[in-house]
Amino acid sequence: MSTTLLAVQTLNGLQLGILLFLIAAGLTLVFGVMDFINLAHGVQYMLGAYLAVAGYQLTGSFWLALPLALLAALACGLLLEFLVFRHLYDRDHLDQVLATFGVILFLNEAVRVIWGAAPLSVPVPELLNGSIRLFENFNYPVYRMALLAAGLGVAVLLYVLVTRTRVGMLVRAGASNAPMVAALGVNIRRLFMIVFGFGAMLAGFAGIMAAPILSVEPGMGDNLLILAFVVIVIGGIGSIRGAFLSALLIGLVDTIGRSFATDIARLVLPPSAANDVGPAIASMLIYILMAGVLFFRPSGLFPVRSA
Amino acid sequence: MKQILSAFAVTASIGLAGLGAATAPAGAEGLKIGFLATLSGPPAVLGQHMRDGFLLGVKQSGGKLGGMDTEVIVVDDELKPDAALTKVQGLLERDKVDIMAGVVFSNVMMAVYKPVIQSETIFIGANAGPSPIAGKGCSRYFFSTSYQNDQNHEVMGRHASQKGYGKMVVMAPNYQAGKDAIAGFKRHYTGEVAAEIYTKLGQLDFSAELARIADLKPDAIFTFMPGGMGVNLVKQYSQAGLKDVIPFLSTFTVDETTLPATKDLAVGLYSGAEWAPNLDNPANARFVREFKAEYGYAPSLYAAQGYDAARLIDGAVGMAGIKDKTALLSALNAAPFESVRGDFKFNTNQFPIQDFYLTKAVQDGNSYVTEAVEKVFDDFGDAYAGSCRMN
């Protein structure tokens, strides 16, 4: 274990955290403002990745595929909102879970019917194809640096949108007390649609950015969805700032836990037992973290909702 | 309203079931085969290859295996052992299949094996070959046209020792097949294992593990990372610049099911398998050519194994018919067919004795396939045949 390795793992953790943030931001907005549990957020991420593949096959260029796929993801999100979600805003959370879970099953199958079951990929764009040598034998792809920068850019953009614009103010007010905002004469349905569309676009953007480095296959969003829920629960529902910080925290804890858990276990256990215990602990770490945070701060680290 | 709808639904389903029963061929004349594979979810591509290979084998006999009208009932196990068990029971009791075939994953195999064997139905395994079935739990009703799970990993262990890699890192997902892979590898590897890395099943981002591997500076790495996990690992391994520096040995990670996604990034990586498209025998040349013509994509070893299962059934049923089960079992045991692997015969536990090769991923025109580079094991039987006491 060296400081260089620790530095690299920190970088890896931050990069995972940024990807998680891109997914969690949309999820927390929708949950916070509209009190709507959207399990289908994970498939919107997957849809973004598949649309990137389709866009690339159509245009042959990642940079052209990016805006096309983004618009297509937005269109799909709005279509879903119109067809399914709009009818569920006033319903019980359990009904929303049931319906959005159905959307997951449907879209996973639809994607398999349209694109097939085999994993697909998008090549990394030429401009970002290089790598930076971090230490001997190990290169860090420029694309991942770009992903980090893009995620930070989106975070800043969201911050500006939410705190400095009128729509952002309405979103924050809606997250605290939606009925009051409606009572004050704001078209809450249109606000919901804007928030939902933006959330879908964020998830789609995360999918597009992830397509060159992760394999695009049916069900790719399901694992990340669970992590995204952990992120927003720890960060506080409805809080973008909370989502950002807790996403980075979870990315770091998960990455550093995975890389050093076996070594740490080997300090107290014999090697064969450490090989069993280490990975098990590493996969449990973020959930232990979540339990710990909820124990001390049940509303998350940066709660938004008033009582 | 609800009652009317439910009454309608009940009537419709009875009607459809009656229709289904009426169109099924008479059991006595035809051959009914139940084919179980994983056809949904991320690993669906493996089941798809296996099914396509099997159906091609049936088609080559004009839809008549062994001269009998063959009906293949394809069933999706969804990678859920309990769902698979229910469906297999349906195949055995309702459809009264003569032969069961297929099964991609070992956990599904372990769930359905006993019921099929206890019903004295012939079972041709076309992929999963867990050690209990090869050893103590062996049965005269079970034949495998694939391999025993440990064997491919043993190939890489032997190859690593032959190449003189003194220090290696091994990596696999943290579940039974992953642990078996590492155990199989270590059986023939004589060097030092610097680290055993177990990743989470379904993990997508390996940057932490790759940084650790680069830090440890091994002579090579061995990994078992099937499906989408393998695609991600290969991509990220290449992007981290490790591909040209630390040799990448793997099993079930780089094959025709993942090469369409990894393409150039996987070219030059080594694997161990009992089959590759370039094996030089007439049966294989015909298989690869007709598979590509029929389905439009390159076959993997799952497809080859499914195809061999169909050809085995064709040869045995042609020899002995299905009326006398003991005669059919003896016929199957004689392996009366031309395997796409060339050399093929059954061991005492009815698993194959076959040759194993070191394979390499190459570019073949527009597609990416594996190519057998050298033979690592000749007439290799599995390690569990000794503990099989067949009744």
Question: Can you give a write-up of this model?
Answer:
The complex is a heterodimer of chains A (307) and B (391). By secondary structure, chain A is mostly helical. Chain A contains eleven helices and two strands; from the N terminus they run ααααββααααααα. In chain A, strands 1-2 form a two-stranded antiparallel sheet. In chain A, strand 1 and strand 2 form a beta hairpin. The longest helix of chain A has 32 residues. Chain A is globular and about 65 Å long. The N and C termini of chain A lie far apart (47 Å). Chain B contains 13 helices and 14 strands. Chain B is of the alpha/beta class. In chain B, the strands form two sheets. In chain B, strands 7, 8, 9, 10, 11, 12, 13 and 14 form an eight-stranded mixed sheet that branches. Chain B has a six-stranded mixed sheet with strand order 2-3-1-4-5-6, sandwiched between helices. In chain B, 42% of the residues lie in helices and 22% in strands. Chains A and B meet through helix 1, helix 4, strand 1, strand 2 and helix 9 of A and helix 2, strand 8, helix 8, helix 9 and helix 10 of B.
H and E order of chain A: HHHHEEHHHHHHH
Helix content of chain A: over 70%
Rough outline of chain A? globular
Which CATH class of the largest domain in chain B is shown? Alpha Beta
User: So what's the CATH class of chain A?
Assistant: Mainly Alpha
Order of helices and strands of chain B: HEHEEHEHEHEHEHEHEHEHEHHHEEE
Mean pLDDT of chain B: 88
Gist?
Chain A has helices at 3-34, 41-59, 62-83, 93-115, 142-164, 166-176, 178-183, 188-210, 220-235, 240-268, 271-296; strands spanning 131-135, 138-141. Chain A has 307 residues and is mainly alpha-helical. In chain A, strand 1 (131-135) and strand 2 (138-141) form a beta hairpin.
